Amino acid sequence: TILVLDFGSQYSHLITRRLRELNVYSEMLPCTQRIADLSWKPKGIILSGGPYSVYQNDAPHVDSAVFQLGVPVLGICYGLQEIAWYYEQTNVLAGEKREYGHSKVNVARHAGLAEHIDKLFDQIEDNMTAWMSHGDKLSHLPEHFVTVAYTSNAPFAGIAHARERLYGIQFHPEVTHTPEGKVLLKNFAVSICQAKTDWTMGRFVDKEIARIKALVGEKGQVIGAVSGGVDSTVAATLMQQAIGDRFHAVLVDTGLLRLNEAETVKKTMSRDLNINLAVVDAADLFLSRLKGVTDDPEKKRKIIGNTFIEVFQEKAKKIAAEAAGSPQAGEIEWLLQGTLYPDVIESISFKGPSATIKTHHNVGGLPATMNLRLIEPLRELFKDEVRVLGKELGVPEEHVWRHPFPGPGLAIRILGEVTPEQLRIAREADHIFITEIQAAGLYKKISQAYAALLPVKAVGVMGDKRVHSQVIALRAVETTDFMTADSFEFKHTFLKRVSNRIVNEVDGVCRVSYDITSKPPGTIEME
Ligand code: XMP
User: Fold this and answer.
1) ipTM for the complex?
2) What does the pLDDT look like over 15-32, one tens digit per residue?
3) Which of 25, 142, 150, 199 could pair covalently with 88 via S-S, beta carbons 3.0-4.6 A apart?
4) Which residues make up the binding site for ATP (predicted)?
5) Do 387 and 506 form a contact (C-beta atoms < 8 A)?
């Protein structure tokens, strides 16, 4: 196991992710972790970057046992300065020039010196591209250290201790902007620390199930909302495998779901995955509250968000009452959330004795009002890792690869008022589009696709008759992070086929358009 001590850099979790990609098991703990309190001995320690300057009065510092354990240590950015600070507290100065972005790093090799020194940059070019993001830099080398890398702005971009396996680098090897960063991390973890390379997703499952069991105890009960999306499905499956029927999944049918969506989710959850699922059909309630809301997308979102919380809470209360009545049951005290790492906006806090984690929640504000404790089994993972995990757990392919679907559902894809008739049109058109995308083998290439219903009417001619009916706008985008996106380039023949089918098969539509706006300036959803 490699221990990653986190100083709060936005990239800290990428370090553990890269190690996982190398099949090396790692644990990330707050930088103030006392080494004596660990129940295991790490094979090596990585100190992350962080937003502080080591010479500030309130700057965090690691337990000095880190340097006395006799295992290799790699400091990244702030971690480099922390190493220098440990050896010589006056060493680090504020850099006159902040440095962000790509930088050319030159490697300095030392054939005549101790063997470990050159190992960090083994198999790496002498002139590598690396990502920098720092204000401070070393003003001179601490005693007993040698320079192993330098840039035009940072003469000590990489340092190594002449005798101990102790290294510091100013750049970030964990980001993809440092193409050879993974080789460097492999050099450190595998060649220098000799960590085992036997970590797999299967091991993650074992560890997470054990953690959930320990957390929840013999009788504890967990509740969670599921939508059929990959995150909530995978989180629910993991929970089912950990505590069985003491996990209560709730599917709120808002009436704003896609064609057959509620049925498909029900079937998968209860039949294929054996999840204890309660379905609440709240379509009428949602629709009645959305009545008359025509041109205020934010109002739609608010109504849907609040109604969702209300319906979920009511169901949770009922389930809790039933659970309390059963002999082995305690009250429900846990809420499952499928939060992923990119949703976690604040890293582990090292201030105060208990590490707290603040997250951003998809389903607006559920936990705060419900007095439940959070369980977030996916919080260390990225989307693609969740898919691998889903496969490992036996979640059906169609759920593992499902495009994201927004909480407010079709309501933000029906521009203008949401009525049963508008829902029917949007649903049918969307179904044709997605079916054709699947038939053409394009579903996995596209990040998200849907049909929106525009609130305008256009003229058409159908069966020798003039018609005046609505317009569908198709949208399909490619993106990795959903922050920026490009419209997908379909073949014209494909779009014509979809257009033909929609106009012919969906009553009330006479035209189909394709939205080619990228994000920005557009957003992925229409509202
Ligand atoms: P935008 O439209 O902001 O969408 O480019 C980015 C991603 O977020 C999803 N999205 C939402 N998801 N509730 C959700 O759960 C929402 O209110 C919401 N709005 C947008 C959208 O589907 C896309 O994947």
Assistant:
1) 0.98
2) 999 999 999 999 899 999
3) 142
4) 227-233
5) no
